[in-house]
Amino acid sequence: MSKTIVFKFGGASVKDAKSIENLFNILFNRLRNRTLIVISAMGKTTNGLEEILRLKLNGDLTSSNSAKIKDFHLGICREIFPPESMIFSIIENLFMQMDRDLDKPLTQENYDAYYDQIVSYGELLSSRILQEYLCFKGIFCIWQDAREIISTNSNYRFVEVDWDKTKNLCLKHLGSKLEQYPVVTQGFIGADPKGKTTTLGREGSDFTAAILAFCLNAQSVTIWKDVDGVRNADPKRFPDTVKFEELDYREAAELAFYGASVIHPKTIKPLANLSIPLYVKSFLSPEAVGTKICQVSEPMHIPCTVVKDNQILVSFRVTDFTFIAESHIHRVYEVLKKLKLKVNMLQVSAISISIVIDMEMFALDQLISTLQNDFSVKYNDALQLITVKNQNADLVEALLKGKEALLEQVTRSTFQFVHKP
């Protein structure tokens, strides 16, 4: 029996009618037995749905806000489907469901659970449109609700996967389907034990592909992006970048952890555990080689630069003339875990703890209010964190030139600093 191949397409690959037609051409030339297609929300839909939540929370939401997203999807469909296609009623029904969900009260306390219910509509819409289009063009395929196959806990927006249950559900719902036809499903979403929609974290569709590949013991995963592979820096920010033909799982995982946007941080581990190769290819140049992420014997020495925007530097200073002890660090991390915040950089001095975190709605205010009785708290926002892996002195000097580093840190192989851009 042939093994499953997993293709994952990001939002940029389905941002408009021409992009969807291009995606069809990619699949038409590559589809064979047991192909699983994971799709993200179209274009900037997730950003638009997040803006709807922000407006609702502030009491500024109007029907025109969701109508813009609806018109965007309908506009694409009018270009690629005949007027009698059933896709138009499918989209109408999904937006009716979303509007009913938006009628429910939203508060700061239920924001995470509410977020998962609303933002998941992006993937539900894109996957239905893609499945209908493939069928319309003569590639019969099956739509699969990811919430039926990916089981998670109820830690909304930052869920953990129930791997055993998910594997059983994949075999139950996908095994026989994949023997007959390609299957289209959604990235980013799952369901908790009560059947309530959950999400895997921002940009989590890559992780979905890895989860499904692991559970099905797939032959390979290919992530189709608007870049030609994994490079040692973002070519949109830096000139003369180097593309990797091959990259070791560990190196890729580290780059993802530091913020390289080409791969979601959790994607690598399940694939590495089963030695499933991950290919990063361009949907703009589908015949190009791309990058293969796999087990590589030779260590990588090329310097890699990763930039993360919208960072916050928070410093906690003891106020009673004691020195920082393990109990202080434990207290800070206890609150960070409760608020679902990941530390991107940590530095401890004799009397203070400094951390760099992503900007998250409500998180900074909650962090300060919870710890202000234990520490004197100060912060700087709208910062940029730059990480250099396999650093060298010349590159570090060039990156620091003209910038005021608010915090910097060096290890044997990595240099990090945060500054105000």
UniProtKB/TrEMBL annotation:
<keyword id="KW-0067">ATP-binding</keyword>
<dbReference type="InterPro" id="IPR001048">
    <property type="entry name" value="Asp/Glu/Uridylate_kinase"/>
</dbReference>
<dbReference type="InterPro" id="IPR001341">
    <property type="entry name" value="Asp_kinase"/>
</dbReference>
<feature type="domain" description="Aspartate/glutamate/uridylate kinase">
    <location>
        <begin position="3"/>
        <end position="282"/>
    </location>
</feature>
<dbReference type="GO" id="GO:0004072">
    <property type="term" value="F:aspartate kinase activity"/>
</dbReference>
<dbReference type="GO" id="GO:0005829">
    <property type="term" value="C:cytosol"/>
</dbReference>
<keyword id="KW-0547">Nucleotide-binding</keyword>
<comment type="similarity">
    <text>Belongs to the aspartokinase family.</text>
</comment>
<dbReference type="GO" id="GO:0009089">
    <property type="term" value="P:lysine biosynthetic process via diaminopimelate"/>
</dbReference>
<keyword id="KW-0808">Transferase</keyword>
<dbReference type="InterPro" id="IPR042199">
    <property type="entry name" value="AsparK_Bifunc_asparK/hSer_DH"/>
</dbReference>
<dbReference type="Pfam" id="PF00696">
    <property type="entry name" value="AA_kinase"/>
</dbReference>
<dbReference type="GO" id="GO:0005524">
    <property type="term" value="F:ATP binding"/>
</dbReference>
<protein>
    <recommendedName>
        <fullName>Aspartokinase</fullName>
        <ecNumber>2.7.2.4</ecNumber>
    </recommendedName>
</protein>
<dbReference type="InterPro" id="IPR036393">
    <property type="entry name" value="AceGlu_kinase-like_sf"/>
</dbReference>
<keyword id="KW-0028">Amino-acid biosynthesis</keyword>
<comment type="pathway">
    <text>Amino-acid biosynthesis; L-threonine biosynthesis; L-threonine from L-aspartate: step 1/5.</text>
</comment>
<dbReference type="GO" id="GO:0009090">
    <property type="term" value="P:homoserine biosynthetic process"/>
</dbReference>
<dbReference type="GO" id="GO:0009088">
    <property type="term" value="P:threonine biosynthetic process"/>
</dbReference>
<keyword id="KW-0418">Kinase</keyword>
<comment type="pathway">
    <text>Amino-acid biosynthesis; L-methionine biosynthesis via de novo pathway; L-homoserine from L-aspartate: step 1/3.</text>
</comment>
